[in-house]
């Protein structure tokens, strides 16, 4: 029988259990200083000797006895009596007690002369001025910064005892193949353990990835036993789904005991935690975004309680660009793109599917909806944890609407100018509302090229706003068929598909209407299909045009002078972008197309 | 003749020259995906195939034809006609078009039954739902995050072309010895190149450290030529002082040309920039804090213009705890400790000596005083760049006043409780003023144990503040001598030194006064010296007590309940701290001392 998650543990409770049940193993290792950056000190570090070890000269010049320089004046220069030439950093020779800078002297008959007496101790760095032997340099629990390395080396410390947590990561699943293999039908590239290794290493853990273990209770048991013996924590990847491949649960239940199975968190619900010989075994969900939540919120929290120091992530208080619903009782994490529009930072959510990794790749942060909330309203202030440097937000451009693949190239062009283009998918209505609420830098709308589409679908919602419309690309739609369409028998034409684009759908409906064609019931064998001119050409089919869709960038005039938005407009209008469109067989926004012909 | 820095280039101008003169070498290298975290993409990355490749089941259950499930109702369950068992992630077999979750079925006579019809496409992940083949995954110039690794692997990308800058780091100086060597007289451990390597590697550069080159024009020339041939930028360490060891300047002047020598920045003034064969050679000052400025502001800026992405540093707007003077015309950087006291963040400056690395180790950030400012006033808002995670500031405790070495152990005890203790040196007056202005969590004052010291030196400045005084440690001072002091000849006693501690000085003066001893002129041979009982004991000398100094923690009563301050008080009063004091032969604040005896 498949297992069910009848008792979902609330996230805060799950974390409290984890913390209580698994105290820090307190492991430390000694590493050479050069490898210590980013590691956390396990013991306090003390200076081995004083720096400087003795009194030293602060400048190039002459070591003198200050008493012998008394009386030197501008009007009454004095030759130096006893002196020694010293360079910056050299130990002050006995019996001198001051340094005269070389710039403050001149030679006459080979003897340096001065115009000013030297005070005792002048231009001398006292022994121990920087640090005294035995003085504390770094307390325990300190994350070593790059510049700490120089100080530690200076104070004679060449090895450091740092905290260490060993994480064993075990991928399980007969369908998994390693990265670099071309996956066959029903096979999946094993990627979650790579991601886990990258994330947990960044959090200061010492990770060890094991080979893929097929769905076999004996083999999984063996792998878990080995990993538990060699590590402080074990992560099983894809071992917590409720399907027929759910062998991991039985294995860890048998080896130790289940602490919890299922947390009230989205994504990431199917997490499993077991205790095997006093060590935690964490079963990570197979869906990558769910796995990320578990790595971040569960494994990451444990590493932090165990004294490792995660790479800091910036936080930003922003406004939510559109309402987000959320189920009561579930802590939820939502990837968002944050951008600053006209002085206000807005977070636009990406899709929440736990298999949609691109949402996280496209996002520059994520927000947290606590279990007690049924959702967050549009315009509400929320705190976003950033996955990019905070400073990059001011150079982020958020476009809402049609995510035409050509926007990727725009992103590349903008990256050259130092901007980050974030495209968030939305319908035309969604894009227009974002423009209205000023939550995005630009909207991308795809409209049929008819007399009224712009007025009907855009302008009527923004009557008082001056808009700038920048054509991005045009797509010609039509009917593709093996043989030329017979004008005489159009009425009986059966079209195989309904186009995905609303604009193409509108064009099709208008054409059918214009030609007096009845829509045939679905499921009936078809003579023709709706597609773009490019698709028809690539498929070698005859093509009857039904009209064009225009994908435009729409910008509020008042913001068009904004440096980032100006760069965006420039990129769209650039010869590079036009050349790119032609290279992929697309028509640029002004209709200039590379040899697209209608049948 | 030694070189002078007659024409200091302003920092902004120096950076503009650097950027103009040295465009990005545009180097890229291909690395395996696992090594790509933190690197910056040199080319855009596109998905190799669609994910999912085909329509797949979202849940464990049965693949069905949706048409055949029509009519199933709670009151009229339906056995499934044609179906196939599928697990989460499996490709949907032909000719099915929907999935029924196993939880929504039950078996009867081996045939699964349903109570609800399935909609077409139900519980199916469509091919390309996550990403479509050829779609842009990451634009160029993107710093790869740990979770990006999972997505890239999923989309078939197993190698990545990333930007690369090769930095050659050459230490020069006959006085230098490598880390791990015990430095002899006049020798210095070579540490700046280690620090440079740690810092620039963290900024994404590929560093190569060369061996120490002694002060020899020919050898330096050879080293520079090799490094220039093998790298995109060369950093010469300690090659820019104006002393007799200044060979580097001559070498790079000869090999190419000096771009500038000397920048109006503190610390870091003596930086040298040369152009050798179109590549920059940066001469870094020998003083470590000056070297840090040059690494951060000059080398770091160049790497960032060349498209590398530094580890983000947090910024915080805080108030300056005490006035900082600064010379007009110099950009200046000052290490500070930031802490939040009663809701306001304050930055307390550390000493600015360019040889005082401990100031940077102790600090958690630094602030920038632009060249146009003559200083920053106390209480003025300033922006601090943090060298620690921003979140750690709320767990930072700032103590101002006497930096007794025993505070190091307090820091260790507080680290256990998750707090960071920052001790900033100040006189008793400075500490009291910080307490008055509420810019610190606690003051540490060292007072002679007399009837009036507390009133005179603390209370009179804080008449309206309720204070809590927590004894930290006591030190007994006295006169150490080889033979017992003769009470009859005390009047002719010659004391060798004046104590550094103001409290001990006060005790000495009172004692001399009490005993009717005239202060002897300095420089006269001495019979005795002032020191602590511990020092006398360790030196095996006779000891005549002159009184005790008490080092106390002083806290505003109103803040004593603050969680962090409570932890600090608890640490001072803990048995662990008392045991520590005894272990080093110090007396605890309440006078409990480990066998200190007066002569």
UniProtKB/TrEMBL annotation, chains A, B:
Keywords: Molybdenum cofactor biosynthesis. SMART domains: MoCF_biosynth. Pathway: Cofactor biosynthesis; molybdopterin biosynthesis. Residues 168-305 form the MoaB/Mog domain. SUPFAM superfamilies: MoeA C-terminal domain-like (SSF63867), MoeA N-terminal region -like (SSF63882), Molybdenum cofactor biosynthesis proteins (SSF53218). Transmembrane segments: none annotated. Signal peptide: none annotated. This is Molybdenum cofactor biosynthesis protein. It comes from Methanoculleus methanifontis. It comes from the Archaea.
């Amino acid at each position: 029988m498949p297992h069910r998650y009848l008792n979902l543990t609330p996230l805060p409770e799950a974390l409290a259990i984890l913390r209580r049940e698994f105290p820090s193993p307190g492991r430390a290792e000694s590493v050479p200083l050069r490898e210590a950056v980013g590691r956390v000190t396990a013991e306090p570090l003390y200076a081995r000797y004083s720096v400087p070890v003795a009194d030293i000269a602060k400048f190039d010049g002459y070591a003198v006895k200050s008493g012998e320089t008394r009386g030197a004046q501008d009007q009454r220069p004095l030759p130096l009596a006893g002196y020694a030439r010293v360079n910056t950093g050299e130990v002050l020779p006995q019996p001198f007690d001051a340094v005269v800078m070389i710039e403050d002297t001149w030679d006459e008959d080979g003897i340096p002369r001065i115009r000013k007496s030297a005070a005792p101790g002048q231009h001398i760095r006292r022994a121990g001025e920087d640090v005294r032997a035995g003085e504390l340099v770094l307390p325990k629990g300190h994350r070593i910064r790059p510049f700490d390395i120089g100080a530690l080396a200076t104070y004679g410390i060449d090895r450091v005892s740092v905290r260490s947590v060993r994480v064993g990561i075990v991928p399980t699943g007969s369908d998994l193949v390693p990265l670099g293999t071309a996956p066959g039908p029903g096979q999946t590239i094993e990627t979650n353990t790579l991601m886990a290794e990258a994330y947990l290493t960044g959090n200061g853990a010492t990770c060890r990835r094991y080979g893929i273990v097929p769905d076999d209770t004996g083999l999984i048991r063996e792998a878990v036993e080995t990993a538990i013996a060699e590590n402080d924590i074990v992560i099983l990847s894809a071992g917590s789904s409720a399907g027929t491949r759910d062998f991991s649960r039985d294995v860890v239940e048998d080896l130790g005991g289940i602490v919890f199975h299922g947390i009230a968190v989205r994504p990431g619900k199917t997490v499993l935690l077991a205790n095997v010989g006093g060590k935690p075994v964490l079963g990570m969900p197979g869906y990558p975004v769910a796995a990320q939540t578990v790595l971040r919120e569960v494994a990451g929290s444990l590493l932090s309680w165990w004294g490792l120091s995660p790479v800091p992530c910036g936080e930003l208080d922003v406004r939510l660009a559109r309402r987000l619903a959320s189920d009561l009782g579930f802590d939820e994490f939502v990837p968002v793109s944050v951008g600053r529009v006209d002085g206000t930072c807005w977070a636009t959510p990406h899709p929440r599917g736990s298999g949609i990794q691109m949402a996280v790749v496209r996002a520059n942060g994520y927000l947290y909806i606590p279990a007690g909330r049924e959702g967050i309203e549009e315009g509400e202030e929320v705190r976003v944890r950033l996955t990019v440097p905070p400073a990059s937000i001011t150079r982020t451009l958020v476009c809402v609407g049609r995510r035409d693949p050509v926007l990727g190239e725009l992103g590349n062009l903008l990256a050259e100018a130092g901007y980050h283009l974030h495209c968030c998918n939305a319908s035309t209505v969604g894009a227009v509302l974002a423009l209205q609420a000023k939550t995005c830098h630009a909207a991308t709308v795809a409209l049929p090229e008819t007399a009224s589409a712009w007025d009907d679908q855009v302008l009527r919602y923004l009557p008082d706003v001056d808009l700038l419309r920048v054509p991005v690309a045009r797509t010609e739609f039509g009917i593709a068929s093996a043989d030329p369409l017979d004008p005489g028998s159009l009425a009986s034409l059966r079209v195989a598909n309904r186009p995905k684009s609303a604009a193409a759908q509108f064009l099709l409906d208008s054409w059918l209407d214009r030609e007096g064609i009845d829509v045939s019931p679905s499921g009936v064998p078809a003579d023709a299909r709706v597609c773009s001119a490019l698709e028809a050409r690539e498929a070698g089919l005859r093509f009857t045009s039904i009209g064009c869709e225009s994908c435009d960038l729409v910008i509020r005039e008042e913001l068009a002078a904004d440096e980032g938005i100006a760069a965006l407009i420039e990129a769209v209008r650039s010869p590079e972008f036009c050349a790119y469109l032609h290279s992929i067989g697309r028509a640029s926004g002004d209709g200039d197309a590379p040899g697209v012909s209608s049948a």
